[in-house]
């Protein structure tokens, strides 16, 4: 119990960890709230409405916190540059385009937020749409990138199985398999988020506007839990 509490505190003390926890609570509340709001009975409907309002506040909280993400994203983009360290050209250019989409996403969202908050005189609709499109492009590029990584890792696995087995090669294969599993989880997470990104597009585009609250919450909760699992796995490896 004490170890679990310490692990939670360690997660909450970091910005990324806290954001993942808030995100999970946000979508989890939307999932439960969406289910309860559709159930008959006044008490269930009221509790469902309260959870949906709580989810909206957490989402707003994350939007405000992202006001400070531009510099960290810029630093990462500059350190990656044109991906000179990447051996695969397709992987390199997908990563560069992904970084560009992510970098442009933040100012668009900031303008939309500022317009809604009446800080600036502008219509927020087009800026929310633009930020949603950039998020969707980023997610789609992330899916393609992870798929490419899985292909490259499987090629390495096939080559390693043809050689003479030793303790080192067995450990290497195990590490490659873990990397493949991690990329598959990333694909599932991005696909779940992409389904929500399309839902928030203007009506008439694929399934835009057709998801009930509980389905949006389900997709977001799935993605969030995968993110927490991956964060826990990376911390275990670094430890």
From TrEMBL:
Keywords: Membrane, Peroxisome, Transmembrane, Transmembrane helix. This is Peroxisomal membrane protein 11C. It holds the Pfam family PEX11. One of its GO terms (biological process) is peroxisome fission. The chain crosses the membrane at residues 127-153. InterPro entries: PEX11, PEX11C_met. GO terms for cellular component: peroxisomal membrane. It comes from Salvelinus namaycush. It is found in: Peroxisome membrane.
């Amino acid at each position: 119990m004490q170890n679990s509490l310490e692990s939670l505190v360690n997660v909450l003390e970091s910005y990324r960890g806290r954001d993942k926890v808030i995100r999970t609570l946000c979508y989890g509340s939307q999932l439960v709230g969406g289910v309860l709001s559709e159930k008959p009975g006044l008490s269930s409907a009221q509790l469902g409405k309260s959870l949906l309002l709580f989810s909206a506040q957490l989402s707003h909280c994350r939007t405000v916190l992202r006001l400070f993400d531009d510099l960290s994203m810029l630093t990462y983009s500059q350190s990656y540059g044109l991906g000179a360290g990447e051996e695969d050209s397709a992987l390199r250019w997908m990563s560069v385009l992904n970084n560009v989409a992510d970098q442009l996403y933040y100012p668009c969202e900031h303008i939309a937020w500022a317009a809604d908050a009446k800080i600036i005189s502008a219509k927020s609709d087009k800026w929310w749409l633009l930020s949603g499109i950039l998020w969707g492009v980023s997610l789609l590029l992330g899916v393609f990138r992870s798929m490419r990584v899985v292909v490259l890792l499987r090629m390495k696995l096939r080559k390693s199985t043809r050689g003479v087995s030793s303790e080192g090669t067995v450990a290497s294969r195990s590490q490659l398999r873990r990397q493949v599993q991690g990329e598959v989880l990333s694909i599932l997470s991005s696909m779940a988020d992409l389904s929500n990104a399309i839902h928030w597009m203007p009506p008439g585009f694929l399934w835009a506007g057709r998801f009930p609250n509980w389905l949006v919450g389900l997709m977001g909760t799935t993605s969030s839990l995968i993110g927490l699992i991956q964060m826990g796995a990376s911390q275990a490896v670094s430890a």
